[in-house]
Amino acid sequence: MPPRFRARRAIALIIPLCVVLYFFAPYKLLFGATKHIPSSKIKYERTDYGQLTLEPVDPNLINGIQSFWGRWSQVIHQNRPSPKRILLDSNAPNIPISPDEYGTRKLPVNRVRNSEADVESMRVSHAALLSTLNAEDPKGDLFNGTGIVTVGGGEYYGPAIIGLLMLRKTGCTLPVEIFVANDEEYEPALCEDYLPSYGARCHVLAKSLQSGKTSLSFDITHYQLKSLAILFSSFAEVLYLDSDSIPLLDPTIELFGSEPYKSSGMVIWPDFWISTESPHFYTIAGLSEFPSNLPKTSSETGQLLVNKRTHLKALLLAVYYNIYGPDWYYPLLSQGALGQGDKETFMAAALVTEAPFYRVKTDVRSVSRHNGKEIKWSGMIQHNPTDDLEHGRTPYDSSENIADVLVRPAFLHANTPKMNAGHLVDEGDLFTTNGKKRLRLWGSKADQEKRFGYDVERKVWELLLQTGCELEEIVLEWKRRKNMCSRLEAHWEALF
């Protein structure tokens, strides 16, 4: 081919290529490896958190955790409960604590109908595990640093991202580890791109459970994930947050750097309800009598502080209670009451191993909305343990401004509904039952400014709009939702 024809052909190929690069290169730059630009045109405050860097996890730490689990998974399996399951005559009632009700816990009514032989069999298994724990006295020296742990995957990514961004808004720069159940719930676009830019990394729990030559695997779902996520995290000091528990303060100083956590090593928060455990639990746990100093209410573990260096023995026992939770220890510790799950396992494990813990005394408060027919509960306010230690259980005054409150809010556990942008626009919670009026979920602007010092719901909706529009074609469970961004925009424009 003559040279002039070769030149013309080259030019003909280069010109279209340049056109393609002209139009598509900006898209790649805008939506590439580390930057995401929301498609929403609405103006709202969008915070620049800077580039939060994650230190790589030390391979020696990973190997150490694998070896550690290889040993203790064997011990937990060897001492599994032998009865088929715990049977109940009936479910325990859900009795809220009244504001003027003080004092300590009374022995609850037993509703377990298993035989004495079943109870004795569980006591023997529990005693064998406890004997090994006491003999080997495991220490948490292999873990390093301080950080936040949560559970994600599937529908839990949405609220976990909101919680992460709200954490960053407090000024907290602590690293975050997000545990997902298995490889199917690991989303590379989130776990390898979006989340690391905010100082968070994903871990696949199934890989940790199966790691090491001697590790035994267990069938783990739902409530059981929490204790294992805390155990397998690289951190020595952990603030665990449910994906829907929103931090309202920087835990670095307010929690980790303050009493009562510094001296106790574990902080647990209260639920609304009077405790309902079976007295048989104390027999199985080897306690000679019912403890005399327990709080009246059950626990709520949407948030939990624990130091693994000082409380690893208690954490391992909590793992045992959770692995064998659904059929045995959950019904033992709640007897079918509302919220039955992991909620009682951590305080029970600390009690049995004689590890110190602090239970917040200030009552959990609720936030709610009126859907046109009835008041619907929207979430729970949990309080600052440092303030609680200083002032104790103080009566709630709805007219009190945040500046006058002695025990400040620390978390908003937004669990009904969760702050999942896709679910919010699809499931009807944003409207009255007749569909005619849009709703705030946590009270009026004035009420929230009085309670929290600012309009928390507006701040969260800034993030819902930002992430919902930015990630509607990235988060897998959002991809099938029609016009998600525009529907979020409509709610924002109407209310905020």
From TrEMBL:
Keywords: Golgi apparatus, Membrane, Signal-anchor, Transferase, Transmembrane, Transmembrane helix. One of its GO terms (molecular function) is alpha-1,2-mannosyltransferase activity. It is a single-pass type II membrane protein. Pathway: Protein modification; protein glycosylation. InterPro entries: Alpha_mannosyltransferase, Nucleotide-diphossugar_trans. The chain crosses the membrane at residues 12-31. It is found in: Golgi apparatus membrane. The keyword Nucleotidyltransferase does not apply. Belongs to the MNN1/MNT family. This is Glycosyltransferase family 71 protein. The lineage of its organism: Eukaryota, Fungi, Dikarya, Ascomycota, Pezizomycotina.
